[in-house]
Amino acid sequence: MRIKSLRAALLLAGTVLIAGCGSDSVINRIRVLVAVGFDREGEMCTGVVAYPNYIHRKGSLAIMKGSGREPKLIMEQFQRQSPRKIRYNKVDSIILSRQIASEGVTVAVNSIERDPALGSNVLLAVSSCSAESIIRSLDRQELENTPFNLVRQNVSDGAVPLSNLYFFLHDFYSEGKDPSMPSLALDKQNQIFIDGYALFKKDRLKLVLNLEEMALFKMLQGKPKIEQLFTYKGEHYVLTVRHGRTRSVPHPGTSPKSMRYDVRLTGSIRNYKGNLLARLPDESRAFAEAIESQIKNKLLALLKKMQAGKLDSLGVGERFRSVERDWQAAAFYREDYPTMDFQVNVVVNITNSGAGE
Amino acid sequence: MAASEPLTIESLGELMALVGKSADFTRITLEAGANRITLSVYSSMADNRQIYEHLMPGLQGMQEKIRDWSALLGRLPFKDMSVETEPKKIAAKLQRGFAVIELAILPAETLLIDISNESLGHRSNNDTENEFAVIGPKAGFVENLEINMHLLRQQIAVPQLIFEDMTLGSLSKTKIVVAYIEGLTNPELVQKMKDRLRGIDFDVVYDSAMLEQVIADESNTPFPLFLTTERIDRISYVISSGQVAVMCDGSPYVLSGPSTFMDFFISPEDYYLPWITGSFFRIIRIMSVFFSLFASPLYIAVLTYHFEAIPTRLLHPIMLSGLHVPFSPVMEVLFLETTIELLREAGARLPAKIGQTLGIVGGIVIGEASVQAALTSNILLIIVALSALASFTTPIFKMANTIRVLRFPLILLSALLGGFGIAVGFTLLLAHLLRLKSLDSPYMIPFYPFRRGNLADSLIRSSYQHTTNRTLYLNPLRKKRYHPNMAKDDIDHED
Q1: What is the model's pTM?
Q2: Does the beta carbon of A55 lie under 8 angstroms from any beta carbon of chain B?
Q3: Same domain (yes/no): B302, B255
Q4: Distance from the Cα of residue B142 to its chain's centroid
């Protein structure tokens, strides 16, 4: 009996002692940051954050700004500005200015990846304008309008390739693929929009794809779900891809080494001047061939562009590593990738031509 | 005799002197020369009509001729008459409403005649009051043991149904009946149950629920280790499965064992509905247990330690609802949980109609006022109300109580250690459950030890095609309940 009581007392004491190790963050006594933007101002790094303000604004976003030599120090500055504890565990968007991205994001990436408070499903994006202006545009906006939701919606239903902190770190540290992330900008109404897709070589921004190239990039990644403009007999049409699949096939045995992309698209046509296919059903094959040829040319141009920039954002190296036993990254990117022959096969299946005028 | 037996009556004279002190004791003497007849009875226990309309006229008519007991035994119109000499046995029967006849010419012996009025003080309505079912029989056990035996024998109409009686309670002398099916129930179980009951040294046994605690394998547990039910169909089912039932005079609840954890979440209704529907409601009931146990602790853990686990879309309503609440989440939860327990406890003590009103007043007025006064948040109010509701889905009231009580240590652990505290609490709870036994049988069967054969009627209620065997952990002498395509009683027809 005495031993049992002793055990119970020890258990209770242990529980209470361990309880002291817990760091509580009671939800209504903290300030929850949701979006962060970093800019470079000379030697200093400035950070602007958006947080939902529940006391005065019923949850619409408010802004804080700080500066320091590195992101951690900026957070300490925010702490000094706030009557409540600052918690950045719910940050879902990290925006880096193009200047920071061009000079290298190693410092930012290091401090982010070492922080267990941040999840991996966080949007990393570069901004064409200053990151501060992107974050400031969120002032008095709803929580729903953060860049994270904007990009996520476009990843699932639009032409933006899938990317987040997890993919960025994977690409950053892996051999055989270069990291990439969306590029954001502000329009005249101060609304955030996606203006392209930023390709990195290690930690430095090298190239920003425009919107059409971004859609083609997603197509090469294997998940095409886009609307593609093309011309047929001098007229403009839009191919709406319902579903599609891209297969990449590396050919390590050829000289030079070659990579083949087989793109299969199924979709419908919308034209600007009536339902052409319905009037001319015999032309459907010619129509499809026109689309195939134009998409193929664009895809080849994109691949050549990345090749010329020595960027392997699609993970060509990874594909070759998967089929070559003694694959060496340095040798591959020095000797093979610059001379690689890209082949693209596009097969388009037009199921209908959409409604008429 | 039990160790604490307070009565030591050495002679009939001593007994009569003792009982004569009671106001409800009647002693009538009929004089006929040397042949004096004395009738002693507790008027509160006996049927007075039988005394004055049958017994007294019968005795007066034969007064002159009585020389020995055979004259009376052969002519008086009563079902239970016996000659007794031992004062202790006489005392026991006197307490139960027997008339004690003494003859002056036979001073060492008495005749005991059963004229007890067993229906006195018992309700006529035997609808189940706590274990209500929409489908299926509504009749339940009552406080009268004879009626309960009658009800059970109506359901299990075979001569193998055995009722073995014994008396428990050094003061209450409560009649207990152990019920089982001879040739089906494992005799070891019957013996174990009888041994445990015989080993009881208790003064007053009011209810089978007391017996359950006294004979339990482990007393330091919040879990009920024996099923107690007022439903006849439930008891007839467990007896036919190979369990042993114990009926207690004065209690409308019949105890059965060995029970498993799952038994407490099974409703007889499951068997009256198609197996898919029955299984669905059973799963809902089991999920309710988890919800009831963990909803409030999770609320505390997430809002105190793991706010990052809240989806961003949910952050907004949670923040807005708890913005002006000055208390920490654990204080909020304790305040509301205690309020709910107070309402439940008050509702249970009040008459049904007032209880309902109290529920509405408590639920709506106090809840709404608490939110208005910023003592608690809307979301927590919903969580606590839902978890209270979920706890009431457990068919056995005792288990529902256990689940409600277990929430409190989990709430404290989650406040101290967050999600880790809940994990610790759940682990301890699971370890405790795995150690429990009911009549030496593991409480967590068929999950631990794992018994695949018994899964057909545990988490889900499989179709009758798949529940043809009895539960194996009971080691019944007859394993087969029925053949899927033969609707015959296997006790009579099985080889």
Answers
A1: 0.81
A2: yes
A3: no
A4: 11
